[in-house]
Amino acid sequence: MVMGLINANPVIHEKKERRTREAPENKDENAVEPIDQLEIFDHIRDIKDPEHPYSLEELKVVTEDSVEINDELSHVRVTFTPTVEHCSMATIIGLCLRVKLMRSLPPRYKVDIRVAPGSHATELAVNKQLNDKERVAAALENSNLLDIVEECLSPTLG
Cα separation of 73 and 76, whole Å? Predict the structure, then answer.
């Protein structure tokens, strides 16, 4: 997708087997179901890396443990780990995570996207960008950036 690879030889990890959730018995159709860590991870695990034909899960950029959720407070935090500490794609990866969760979760949720501590050379700047509503909105108005995000979020065929 991008010319001049930043990490030409990323380590590829095996995907975890998907677990199925049990539907509660005597479920009230109108009841609000709590959202858990696994559900959030299922939303983001297949996002494609902007630089490689692999998912963020396969590159271990996101793991189930990198997701924190407090359903009562409607708060989600995803901490991701770029494959290299000078990754120029970190902001795009974070933007993809944010857009996917904005589209997947009820609007009551506050979403925090963070680079794992010590995993990126400009960690504080990336975190600030990813959690600033005006900067995120401006980024999504940029048609080139939006095209990259949409490509990363598009389903993988096969």
Answer: 9
Residue 96 contacts residue 55 (beta carbons within 8 Å): no
Per-residue pLDDT of the chain (158 residues; tens, 9 = 90+): 444 555 656 566 566 666 665 655 556 666 677 899 999 999 999 999 999 889 999 999 999 999 999 999 999 999 999 998 888 899 999 999 999 999 999 999 999 999 999 999 999 999 999 999 999 999 999 999 999 999 999 986 54
| pTM for the model | 0.83
How many CA atoms lie less than 13 Å away from 12 in the CB half-sphere? 8
Structure token pair of residue 118: 């010590």
Number of other CB atoms surrounding residue 62 within 10 Å: 22
